[in-house]
Amino acid sequence: MLEVKNFTKYYDDLCAVKDLSFRIEEGEFVTLLGPSGCGKSTTLHSIAGLVEPTDGSIHLRGTDVTDLPPEKRNIGMAFQSTALFPHMTVRENIAYGLKMHGYEKADVQERVEESLELVDMPDHGDHVPGELSGGQQQRVSLARALAYEPDILLLDEPLTGLDRVLREEMRGWLNRIQREVGVTTLYVTHDQEDALSMSDTVIVLDDGRDQQIDSPERIYESPANEFVAEFVGKSTQFTGTVTQENGHTIVQNGTKSIELTESDLTDGETVSVFIRPEDIEVGLEQIGADNEFSGTLTDIANLGNRAEVTVTLDDGTTALAHTSRFPEMTVGDTVYLRFDTGRVIVL
């Protein structure tokens, strides 16, 4: 449906994106995820025709659109800023996009009303943007982008700036609309929760290069490298040397011996291991389990549905774990961390 081939973009001597290739199938929701400056917005804007590639090509429904101006590409786009005309009503904002795409006057009103129904705002057509909340403005922006039935919808960090509760509400709403309409969508964000909760496929970018293109589950459970493991989700990391002891694979990290289920590692190999906080159990009593280490509880963050605790292990390493909410523990307690061998990510 959309194919980006060997896309490269330089700004003078600065390489923003290098040799990026990916494909999006009909109806997919794909997210470009990465830190600020990684090249995700440059990629999105090139697909939209707002930025000219230095090299590579962009194909939409089998047609090379690399050199076509934005108005010649049937693409819908919604920005973080919404880009609504402040002096126009909601209906006029949506109608403007339809007129720009050549809709006949007789068809514009019908499409405007259908668009307002789609985004659950049929009673807000006569309001101007300044009379709407941030979430409502984003809904209007999306309605305008979808009204002329684009081949693909591009979303450039549309939820940034919304408060946490509204952001979570808008995620579910946006996902529902996308599935209902069936529009192919490319979403840009630096927020891992957006990417993991909404996407069919996630493209993780760093320094202008793709680090992993995969399903949300595999991005989180099987990161391709240390950058992905550290950027997508929190982890406790240990680095050590692989040894084989009595048929078991061990990573020796200082005084700690971390047992793995991996069997294809080489003796003497240096690896990094990552354990997600939800995979670490914390207790006040030692039970003698594999991969059990003692430390001092140094912080408790009660997050409502769970607590996030920070533990300084006996060798000075900091570990992060999730517990049930409001645990019966106190900063300064000696605690024991333990995790299953099968939940260790090895890179």
From TrEMBL:
Keywords: ATP-binding, Molybdenum, Nucleotide-binding, Transport. Pfam families: ABC_tran, TOBE_2. GO terms for cellular component: ATP-binding cassette (ABC) transporter complex. Its main location: membrane. It comes from the Archaea. Residues 2-232 form the ABC transporter domain. It catalyses: tungstate(in) + ATP + H2O = tungstate(out) + ADP + phosphate + H(+). The keyword NADP does not apply. It is an enzyme of class 7 (translocase). SMART domains: AAA. Its EC number is 7.3.2.6. The keyword Methyltransferase does not apply. It is a peripheral membrane protein. GO terms for molecular function: ABC-type tungstate transporter activity; ATP binding; ATP hydrolysis activity. InterPro entries: AAA+_ATPase, ABC_SmlMolc_Importer, ABC_transporter-like_ATP-bd, ABC_transporter-like_CS, Mo/tungstate-bd_C_term_dom, NA-bd_OB-fold, P-loop_NTPase, Transp-assoc_OB_typ2. It is found in: Cell membrane. The complex is composed of two ATP-binding proteins (WtpC), two transmembrane proteins (WtpB) and a solute-binding protein (WtpA). Belongs to the ABC transporter superfamily. Sulfate/tungstate importer (TC 3.A.1.6) family. Part of the ABC transporter complex WtpABC involved in molybdate/tungstate import. Responsible for energy coupling to the transport system. This is Molybdate/tungstate import ATP-binding protein WtpC.
